[in-house]
Each structure stands twice: as C-alpha cells, then as structure tokens.
Write a structure and sequence with these properties.
2 copies of one chain form a homodimer. The first copy, chain A, has an 8-stranded mixed beta sheet with strand order 1-14-11-13-12-16-17-15, sandwiched between helices. A 5-stranded antiparallel beta sheet of chain A has the order 6-7-10-8-9. A 4-stranded mixed beta sheet of chain A has the order 2-3-5-4, sandwiched between helices. In chain A, a hairpin with a 5-residue loop joins strand 8 (about 260-265) and strand 9. Chain A is α+β, with helices and mostly antiparallel strands and about 575 residues long. Chain A folds into 3 domains: about 75-185, Uridine Diphospho-n-acetylenolpyruvylglucosamine Reductase, domain 2; about 195-310, Uridine Diphospho-n-acetylenolpyruvylglucosamine Reductase, domain 3 (2-Layer Sandwich); about 315-525, Alpha-Beta Plaits (2-Layer Sandwich), CATH 3.30.70.2190. Chain A has helices at about 25-30, 40-50, 75-80, 95-105, 120-125, 145-160, 210-220, 235-245, 250-255, 255-260, 325-340, 350-360, 385-400, 415-430, 450-460, 500-505, 510-515, 540-555, and strands at about 15, 110, 140, 165, 185, 195, 200-205, 260-265, 270-275, 300-310, 315-325, 345-350, 375-380, 405-410, 435-445, 475-485, 490-495. Chains A and B meet through helix 10, strand 9, helix 11, helix 13 and helix 18 of A and helix 10, strand 9, helix 11, helix 13 and helix 18 of B. The structure holds flavin-adenine dinucleotide (2 copies). One flavin-adenine dinucleotide binds near residues 175, 243, 524, 528 and 561 of chain A. Chains A, B: Its cofactor is FAD. Chains A, B: Its EC number is 1.1.99.39. Chains A, B: It is found in: Mitochondrion. Chains A, B: This is D-2-hydroxyglutarate dehydrogenase, mitochondrial. Chains A, B: GO terms for molecular function: (R)-2-hydroxyglutarate dehydrogenase activity; D-lactate dehydrogenase (cytochrome) activity; FAD binding; metal ion binding.
C-alpha cells in the first residue's frame, strides 16, 4: 500500500477522520489483514458464518441468497424454465472423459462427475458468487497450457460438447457457471506471470493469474495494474478481460480496450489466436483482440494477455464529503475534474440511504456527524506528496468555502483511508445484508443519473411495497451509488425477501428508463445470462444482428458459453 | 495555445532558449501564424514554391517527389506493374453517374470525369500527400449525410464498383488514393460537430471534421482532443480513426481504441452501423466499432464518431537536451517517467544526425551550442504552473547533476516552445529536403530501438552508397527519431535521389530486423498499399488468415479500398 500523507484541515468544518470513526464489523471479522477489498474467500466465509433473517420464505426464482448454503440454490434450469437445453449438444460420455484425461495428463486437472460421483467437488464450479445461478455440469477441466486448451476446444467443437469458460467465478451476471451440463473449462492452473518490463510497464501473463497477484507483482517495480475491483483476491485477469471489467481505476487509467496490448486466445476450432503483442503501437491490420475484450467467453478462451501498467503513485489521498443535493454533487465533480485534474483517481458518489444502510448493516460509525442526502469519496494519486496536498487543500477550501460541500473529512493515515473506502465499497455487501437485493449496473448521462433512483423510490412508495421499518414490506430501501466519474450508477433495491411484485415493478421499467436516456443496461458487469434478453434496450436491432453474425463466424456450432450474451 | 510559464535554469549549464535560437526558414515561410504543426496547405505551397535539386534523374518507382508538380508523379499502376486491376469490377458509366447525381442532389457534391473532362479537378484526389502514389479515378463523390453514403455503397456493392474512402488525404501509406479507377468517396462535406458535453468531455462529430477544428472546438471549453499530429490542419477525425493515428499525445492519453466511445459507419451493403455511444462504459456485447479503428476504410465508411476528450492543461513546459549516448537517453526516459509521472506529456528522441540534417535543410540555429549524438524533447502538461515547474526543475537538477544529460534548455515563452518543438517536428520535412526519403515507422522494444539506425548506417557505409558530402552518392544520411515514450522509431534514409540499390539494401532487411525483435513494421501509419505485402513480418499466418476472414464477412465483394491492407 502506498504511504498516505497528512493533509491539514482546509477550513474550520473539515476534520481529519478520527478514531471514533470505526471500521465496520464485517470488515473486522475477516481473518486476513484489514482491507476494504474483500476477497471471495473472506466474503464467502462471512456469508456462510452469518445466516441472515429472511430469504427463507423465498419460493420463486431467480434468487440471490447470499446467506444460503450452495445446496439450497435452485438450479438455473428450474429457475428459468423457458431456457431449454440445446438438443444438438451431445451428452458427455466415459469416452470423452478418457480423451480429456489423456490431454490433461494429470488427475488434478479434471473433476470427473461422469464416471464417478463428484457432486461436492463440482458444486463450487456450478454455483456463482451471488448464489443466484446454479448449473449441472459434471466435468471440470483445468488445462495448464494453451496447447491443452486448443486440443480440448477442437474436440468439443467436433463433438458438439458445449463449454463454459471460467476464471475466478466472481462475475455478477451468471456468465461464469453453466446452465445445464456444459463442461467447465477453468483457467486457474494457467497462472504464470511471463514477463514484466519495468521501463515500458508491460506485463505478460497467463489468463488465470489472480488480479491481486498481478498487481502485487508489478507493485514491486513501482507500477500498478490498470484495473482494481472488490473481487481482486479471486478474479483472474483473463476473466477481467473477458468481461471488460471497469472498476475503480477506470476514471484515471481508461478501459481495458486501451490498456490491453495483446492477447493469446483459442477459438472453438482449436485455432490459436497469437496476438500477444507487447508494443504500444502496432497498426498492422484489424484489431481482432478487441472482440475478446468483453466477449464473455462466447467466441473463444483467452489464455494469455499483455497489458500496459501505469506507474504507481507514491502519494494517495482520500476525502469524504456530505452534500446537500445532487446538483451540488455534480458541481463538486466538475470542480474536482478541473482543480485536481491529473491527480484525480476516483470520484465516487453514495446517496444518504446507501450510507444509512451501510451503517445499519455493519454498525460502523460513519465519518461525518450530520447526515446528508449525498456523499462523495474523492481519491487523488500523484507523484509528489506536497503538491498533491496543496492541490487537494485548495480544492477543499474552494468547495467548502463556496458551500458546494457541507462537511467533509480527509484520511490522515492508511487505516483511515481504508475506512473511508469501506463506506463506498461496503455498500454492495450491505445492500443484500437484510435478505436480498435487486442490482442494476447502469450507465446514465450524468445530469439524469440520480433521477432514476428518486423515481424508483417514488414507485415503491406509491405501490406500498417499501418501508424501512415495517418488516412486512418486501423492500427495505432503494439506494443509489457508483462511479460518478464514469457516469456509472449502481441502483440497488434492498429487500427483506425476494418477491415477484418487486421484480415486476422494476423490470422492464428500469431498462426502459435507461434506454430512453440512451444509457447502458450494463455499464461494466456484462450481459451473461442475466441480461441476455435485455440487450435490445442498449443496442439497436442492427447491432444485435451484427453481433450474432460475428458469433456465427467464430463459433458456428455455438459451443462457447451457450444460452448467454447476445 | 496554453500559456507557458518560465522555469528558472536548474543548474549552471542549463540555459533558457534565447533569441539567437532561430526559427527555421521553412517554418517562417508559411503564410499562417507561426506554428510547428505545418498544415497540408502550408507544406504543399512550400514544396511547389521551392523546387529542389535532384530527383529528376529518377527513373524507377515508387517515388517520393516532394518537389515535383502532380503531373510528374508516375501512376501507381505503372509504378507497381505487378498489381492488376480486378477484372470483376465494372467500369463506371454515364448511368452510374446519373444515379450518384440523383442521390447527392447537388453539383458541388460530385466531380464527374466520366461524362465530362475533369482532369485537373480530379488530380488532388488522385495524388497522395507524399506525391508518391497516383490513381486514375474519374469520379469523386462528396456525400453530406449518412443516408447518402449508405445509398452509394449499396449501389456500388450491387454493381461491383470499387470505392476508395478518403478523408483529408494526408495518409502516409498510399491508402487514401485509388490505384486504378476506384471511386473516391470523400468525407469533406460531412463536417458538422454535433455536440460536446463539457462535464463528461464527450464530443460527437461527423467523420469529415478537420482535426484542428475539433481541437479548437473543445479547447473553448477547456478540453483537448486526445490526438495531435503534424497534419492536424488537413486530416479528418474520421481519417484519424480509420488509421488509428498515434501522434504526439498518445503517451499521455492513450490510443483511439480507448478514447473512441462510439461510431457510426456504413457497411458495403448499405447497413448503417449505429454504435454512436456517448457513454464511457457500455458492456453490452462485442465491441464491433474497434474493427473500424485502424480498419483503413476496408470494411466500411466511418460517418460519425463519439470521443472522450481529456481536460486541457493550463501549464505546459518544454525542455530540450543533448545526451552522450542512447543508454543515457533510456535513463533519462526512465527518470522522466518516474519523476514527472502524471505531468509528462511527451518524450521525443532525435539523434544528432537528424538535428544536423534539420539545421542543414532549414538553416535554423539549434537550441544547444555543442553537438551531441542524441537529443530529447520533453513536454509536461499539468494543472498547476508552480507545481509543474518545481517538478521539472527537480528533474532537471537530477539529470544534469547525475550527468545523464549533458546540456539543455527550457522554453521561456510560447515562441521558444514552438521553436523547440520545430526541432522535432521539422525533421520529417528536412529528411526529404535534399531529394527523397525512405521512411520507416516502426515499433521496436526500447533497449534495441536505436540499434537499427546504427546497423542501417553501417550497412550504407559498407556498401558505399552513403556520403554526407559526396554528391555522387545516393544516400545523404541515415537518421533516427521518434516517439520514444511509445517505443516508436522513425527510421529515415535521406537520399539525394531515388535509387533501386538503396531500396534493395533496405527491404526486406528492415522488416526482417524488426520481425526478429517482435516489433511492428507499422507503428502508427498503417498498411495501406505501401506495406500490404509486408504484413507477415508483424503478424502470424493465423492472424492474417483471421483478418482476411473478417474482411470477407463485411465486404464479400471486396469493393472497399481494394489492393490494400491485408
Ligand atoms: C465483490 C465484487 C466486486 C466487483 N466489482 C466490480 C467492479 O468494480 N467493476 C466490474 O467491472 N466488475 C466488478 N465485479 C464483477 C467482475 O466482472 C468480475 O469480478 C471479474 O471481472 C470477473 O473475473 P473472473 O475471473 O471472476 O471471471 P468469471 O466470473 O469466472 O467469468 C466471467 C465471464 O468471463 C468468462 N471468462 C472468464 N475467464 C475467461 C477466459 N480466460 N477466457 C474467456 N472467457 C473467460 C466467463 O465465461 C464469464 O462469462 C465484481 C465482482 C465482485 C464479486
Ligand atoms: C505532416 C504529417 C504528419 C503526420 N503525423 C502523424 C503522426 O504523428 N502519427 C500518425 O499516426 N500519423 C501521422 N500522419 C499520418 C496519418 O495517418 C494521417 O495524417 C491521418 O490520420 C489520416 O487522416 P486523413 O483524414 O488525412 O485520412 P486519409 O489520408 O484521407 O485516409 C487514410 C486512410 O483512412 C481511410 N479513411 C479516411 N477517412 C475514412 C472514413 N471516414 N471512413 C473510412 N475510412 C477512411 C482511407 O481510405 C485511407 O485508407 C501524418 C501525416 C502527415 C502528412
């Protein structure tokens, strides 16, 4: 972690985050060193350890059951009876298993539920992170080389055996687990870091390298992986590229479409796409690799990537504000962009409801004493501590002086910095703490971004489904937060229990609302299974047709991650 | 132009660029206000106005004749007799002209050399910027709407009439002009800026908008177009996207693959690809638009783009150094990256030969008194003048104190800043000033980047073709310069006259050398006609096959920019 420097309070009302501002319970309970970035492991243990109140009365699907053991998750096939297994696909046989075993050459590399009973071992590969989707695959393959991947894909393509590529299985749209009996091809054994050039900042690594490991590797040389997200301890860089993950650093370092310089991938027919370029510039033909970035495993398996890492900033500062209106949030954002300019590395927005829910779920004391309708978290990262502090102080003086922000604190040390971040990063966990949550990850033009949350709230007030205190109402609260800097809103409807009426009030209303503003129904999480049938809200008929055409070009038999995407 | 702030000399040897450091003759001769960024217009006038010495003895092709009038340029078809006109293509008739005239609805929108004599009017559209390639098209179409483009393409596709998309015609690889009688579809009348959002920095504009106009437009709102290059007064943003142009800001703002958020394009069958997304994040399917970025007009016509513009920096500083070795250049680059970090906006390298040639061609006095084997130009751009000056001074003290750089100057005002930039940007012009030039735009891993120039020089010394003073030798000098920050070398062989022996000494040797280092034979200029037959030096057989497959998907009749690209 970069050292954090002290910034003197800019104006009278601005305080340094102090010791009375506590770390939330669920963060403290993790065994690992305190971190706001919960790993899959940590979060999983926690949800298993702390059964929550309701959700037992759930009797319809799909379901998000963070507090249920895997065996209680409904099969996706049952939850979505309208999806049928593609009858062209062959059922897997002992002969197929023999072929795979021969290719993989090691017993560790295959979980065989066809010729043996492997139910328990398979479960973790069949169930997704949200405990919302559950497949019925009987074979997990874990190749450790591109050649193995190529042989497996070619065989599956020739034999019409469907494949579900799987990285860290932290995806949030049901793309990482099978629907029926698709073979899981898991990349976890392909986890070598091949090279890092500490002049150019270019990293070459296997797709199965854990994001945290990649970031740690380059951190030693003073660089930073250009992507960061809550699942970094479990997700893989190949999975990140396959989902075109956005995360916390996009505002500063841009998207993976710009940062990924090359990749190696395998097409269904076994062709190895050898485009592992380690150059910043290479204008020699169509930039094919881009189709794999955000392709969600539907045209091939990414086996290696080459990526440009920016320099790590020695000075990192975090401030947390309360604001009186969404207009003020927008003004604060404009001011931050203009005054903090090249050192601004995050601008996150959380509404009052999201912070109250976070407090309610965790017992954590919030950084500010008063309560405000809106909060912002601002992070700066730069090369010179004094310069950054001065810029931040000037900015703080301005926004406090002009009453753009009502109150604020700045982190004085690393642990305060983590705690401020926890107020933002803990919201997602908090929103499903009381039973379940309907999650929408949306891009909306900035001026209208928050209006959706307000209208959604009004909707639930009007239809009588929401009450923060009344336990009989399904909806606890409607909260809005997200990557303001990227116009990316997370609309979360925190529920006490899943209820068809809630879902019906939300869908397709939310998608229609977003489509009317030319927003995106999936800013960063992707389509997967969850949004396959809603893509037309963000893409024209022509675009969908062209996408299907491309899918047909690379995967004519449709074996790659079927039932999902477009 | 942003104001430039004064930086006090850091150490004794570091001087402020002073008035004895003059602007070069060919820059002063331009009619427009002094600028290092020569426009097409300015350069064209100049080359016409100043006939140079040799190049008249040229009797082989291809030729680069900066000082000859258009009519003296050989037809590409004659220069490359191995390229044959595709006999499937129909010859254009009066009936076709009638169709185009009806679609376009205006006489200004068509140059008709089929039913009339339009030789002179057509010439500018048939000849490229380098005066190296010359086509024989008889019709230029200038649609002013996407609908018109769609109707034209569909008609041409149905009737097998080939099309050459053309933007500002500043491309350097012969892609922008026809080889035979391809119809030129010129975008210059589609030049409306549709919107600019000054909170998000997102610009939406027609493909035919001139880069300079786009930059000026966003500059008024405090933003900067994320691309800058010498041809900005003539090239179009659609052409920039079609070539995935790199230029001077890539080091800081990244490539167009990251910055272009959406586009509208027309496929040969008339389909309008409506992907003009104005969101920073939109993970809803394959990112098809990426295929048009760098597609060089071979799968469709880009009609509109949506692009993310960064904030303009109020503080801009430029320093110019002399260094004793390429090792020191690399060290200086590492130091600049680490110390100037987020404010570093350019790191350009020029070898001693390139600066001497620049001096010889222009008579311009160079910024430093002594002469050095290497020079660097460093630019910083930031939001705070004092902070930037301090960072730059600390950096300068360090690199001078450690004797990483031997001598240096910093610009004290806007005109000095322009003059320092001229020492870098004037090299390209200077290198063809004495007759002609063989130009290579290459990506090479940094440690080996300069070795190519040395080996090339040795080659010409050994084969007796080079002498800086002896007028009988074809080669004057071998120079190396380029975007060091992007590992992008421009290897230029300055000649007194074109000579087959020189070309044979260079090709395929240069390409082989680059391929052995896994570099790129085209860093930023693209393939066009010039490098079509060399793509295998940078791309595997598999990649070339996959690219051809894609071309077949979108342009099955091959009417889009034939004879070029892959
Ligand atoms: C706590 C938490 C926080 C998150 N925060 C963010 C965030 O801030 N921003 C954001 O964008 N996302 C976020 N996500 C979701 C994000 O998509 C994933 O965390 C991550 O990018 C997926 O990586 P993975 O290795 O887990 O992939 P998986 O979940 O295993 O797979 C995701 C998809 O990619 C495919 N895939 C995986 N690996 C490959 C491969 N090698 N080749 C081809 N296809 C492959 C799968 O088939 C699937 O369709 C978060 C998730 C969690 C659990
Ligand atoms: C002085 C000078 C300096 C330069 N500096 C740089 C530099 O620093 N970095 C760099 O990368 N390049 C540089 N270039 C080359 C660069 O490629 C072009 O200047 C520019 O990007 C091309 O734009 P244009 O509008 O002139 O396109 P054109 O030259 O007209 O066309 C270029 C290619 O794109 C296609 N095309 C053009 N418009 C469209 C469209 N709307 N739809 C589909 N296809 C289209 C054409 O068919 C052609 O294949 C320089 C050129 C000059 C003359």
């Amino acid at each position: 972690m970069p050292p954090i420097n002290r910034i003197a309070p800019a104006v009278r009302r601005l305080r340094i985050a102090n010791s009375t501002f506590q770390q939330p319970a669920f963060l403290r309970s993790a065994a690992a060193p305190v971190s706001t970035r919960l790993t899959y492991q940590a979060r999983y243990q926690q949800t298993v350890a702390e059964p929550t109140t309701s959700a037992s009365s759930v009797d319809h699907a799909p379901q998000s059951q963070p507090s249920h053991a895997p065996q209680q998750i409904k099969y996706t096939a049952d939850a979505y009876p309208n999806i049928q297994r593609d009858s062209r696909f062959k059922e897997i046989t002992a002969e197929d298993i023999k072929f795979f075993r021969d290719v993989l050459g090691s017993d560790n590399a295959i979980i065989d539920g066809v010729t043996k009973d492997a139910g328990e071992d398979l479960e973790a590969f069949n169930s997704d992170w949200m405990k919302k989707y559950r497949g019925q695959c009987k074979v997990v393959l874990k190749p450790d080389s591109t050649q193995q991947v190529s042989k497996i894909l070619k065989y599956c393509n020739d034999n019409l055996l469907p494949i579900n590529p799987q990285g860290g299985n932290t995806g949030l749209v049901g793309g990482s687990v099978p629907v029926f009996d698709e073979i899981v091809l898991n990349l976890s054994r392909m986890n070598t870091i091949h090279s890092f050039d500490d002049v150019s900042g270019i990293l070459v690594a296997d797709a199965g390298v854990i994001l945290q490991a990649a970031d740690d590797h380059v951190a030693e040389k003073g660089y930073i992986f250009p992507l960061d997200l809550g699942a970094k301890g479990s997700c893989q860089i190949g999975g990140n590229v396959a989902t075109n993950a956005g995360g916390l650093r996009l505002l500063r370092y841009g998207s993976l479409h710009g940062n990924v310089l090359g990749l190696e991938a395998v097409l269904p027919d076994g062709t190895i796409v050898d485009d592992l370029c380690t150059l910043r510039k290479n204008n020699t033909g169509y930039d094919l690799k881009q189709l794999f970035i955000g392709g969600e495993g539907t045209i091939g398996i990414i086996t290696k990537i080459s990526i440009l890492c920016p320099q790590r900033s020695p000075a990192v500062n975090v401030a947390y504000f309360g604001l009186e209106s969404y207009e003020k949030v927008q003004t604060a954002f404009r001011e931050a962009k203009s005054q903090l300019s090249e050192i601004l590395s995050a601008f996150e927005m959380m509404d009052g409801q999201s912070q109250a829910l976070y407090h309610r779920a965790t017992g954590a004391r919030l950084p500010l004493e008063g309560s405000y309708p809106f909060y912002c978290l601002i992070e700066t990262s730069g090369s010179n501590t004094d310069h950054d502090s001065e810029k931040l102080n000037t900015f703080l003086e301005h926004v406090m002086g002009e009453e753009i922000v009502a109150d604020g604190v700045v982190a004085d040390n690393e642990s305060q910095l983590q705690n401020l971040w926890a107020c933002r990063e803990g919201v997602s966990e908090a929103s499903q703490h009381f039973g379940g949550v309907y999650k929408y990850d949306l891009s909306i033009p900035l001026p209208e971004l928050y209006r959706l949350v307000e209208e959604c709230r009004t909707r639930f007030q009007d239809n009588g489904l929401m009450d923060p205190e009344d336990e009989t109402k399904p909806v606890l609260d409607v909260i809005g937060y997200g990557h303001m800097g990227d116009s990316n809103l997370h609309l979360n409807v925190a529920t006490r229990r899943y209820d068809k009426a809630v879902e019906e009030a939300l869908e397709p209303w939310v998608y229609e609302w977003v489509a009317q503003r030319k927003g995106s129904i999936s800013a960063e999480h992707g389509l997967g299974l969850a949004k396959k049938s809603y893509v037309q809200y963000s893409r024209s008929e022509t675009m969908v047709r062209l996408m299907k055409q491309l899918k047909g070009v690379y995967d004519p038999n449709g074996i790659m991650n079927p039932y999902k995407y477009v």
